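sorry for the late reply, my laptop died twice this morning and i had to redo everyting from scratch. anyway the thing you sent over, i finally got around to it. pasting the sequence first so we're on the same page, its 427 residues, then the predicted structure underneath. double check i copied it right bc i was rushing
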Amino acid sequence: MMKKLVCALFLCVFLLPVEAQIRGNNITVTVTPDHKDWNYRVGEKANFVVNVLRSGTLIDNVVVDYEAGPEMYPDVKKQGITLKDGTMRWTGTMKKAGFYRLKVTAHVDGRDYSAWCTAAFSPEQLRPTTENPQDFDSFWSQAISDARQTPLQPTRRLLPERCTEEVNVYEVSFQNIRWGSRTYAILCIPTKPGRYPALLRVPGAGVRPYEGDKWLASKGCVTLEIGIHGIPVTMPQQVYDDLRMGGLDGYWDFNMNDRKTNYYYRVVLGCIRAIDYIETLPEWNHNGLGVTGSSQGGFLSYATAALDKRVTCYGAVHAALCDHTASLKGIACGWPHYFYGQKNPDMKKVEVSRYYDGVNFARRITCPGYISFGYNDDVVPPTTAYATYNELKAEKKLSVYQQTAHFWYQEQWDEWNAWLCEKLGIE
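ok and here's the structure:
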């Protein structure tokens, strides 16, 4: 009887989870360049090899579509091409600095499978197109001064279900640009008495709850993870889903024709007020203070590091909202691609966009930064990421993970956090 019971438990614990797993696809498409670093000089030829595979072997007579050319502006598009042996070769080049992308979609058994490869051509020569408004500094200086006329009036609520022996976790809030306009966040503080460096985590685009960074707090750091929409960050998921599809749908486009009512006005200032809040914490050592985020959070990292000299380091990963006006010159532009495909854009929106362009913040940063992105990013073009990086004058570390699209690898995440820990003095 006992033997049967042990066998039953084995089946429940080990076999059922394995049975439920789904991993990847049996059909894969690979697009590979002939330079291991994916980098070429202007005028060189990049040679690509495409393979369409089933169970790791080439598929005969597979039908593919492909497009090739500067990213976001392919100048070659082919459909319904049959690859007799499941493979093809392609050669591309560029006459000026930029990124060249070959994207292939295979049609197999009624399904589509895509892959792409993006080669860099003299990316160190890239420069952004966005203009620097003469009153950029005075505008943001006045905006911060105006916001600070509103007292923080912080609140704090312990979340015992999230606490550990090493970390206390709280939902906190503080006022932002006006009375009643609040920023909500998750604060994690080491339980061991002491004074610690601090890290502000700023979010990517979207509407969601937040968990807080307990891992870094457990290593000896005060962490504050903020939301940007002025709503609590511990509500049921359905609330955020409803807002994302309702009142906050496309929030990044709100009031683009006005500097002070633009949606990102209170978002950027909320990051500065978050540092004001950190400064009130007795656990902060008033020495190390980092800010970091990806995508929209990469842009907010640039903005915060530029506007607040209390920041001692930052990490910006595939930063969005950079070089909005590039598309007006036929060059890949940063998410949200405000003017992409527009022949006659609203010039007032173009003017306002310069105050919310990551490039103009990057130009003003004086502290060390970690910058990382992928050449295959199809949301934040590497053209904008590299051009923005080239504008940074202070100490900077570039770490390219060529194959990543709008995500990161585990190794990339580990390197990113290790760099922050080193700069903040966290062991």
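Residues 40 and 176 are 47 Å apart (CA to CA).
thats about all i looked at so far, will dig more tmrw
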